[in-house]
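We include the pair:
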Amino acid sequence: GRRAREASRLMSRAHSGPKDQALRAAAAAIRREASHLKTANALDLQAARAAGHDAAFVDRLALAK
């Protein structure tokens, strides 16, 4: 929590250019790794169901399409 608060303070003072660049880089990484992320999410969903978690929990765990 402390590290997140500190990062939040730093980000609030950062110029929009670097923040935009970081967001574009994150979006590109998500697109590049989409197949891997979907596969990992499917395994997470399977494990959650096997562990007996309720449908609402499993639904929140699922990545949106």
Remarks:
- Helices lie at 2-13, 16-32, 34-50, 55-61.
- DSSP finds four helices and no strands in the chain.
- The mean pLDDT is 95.
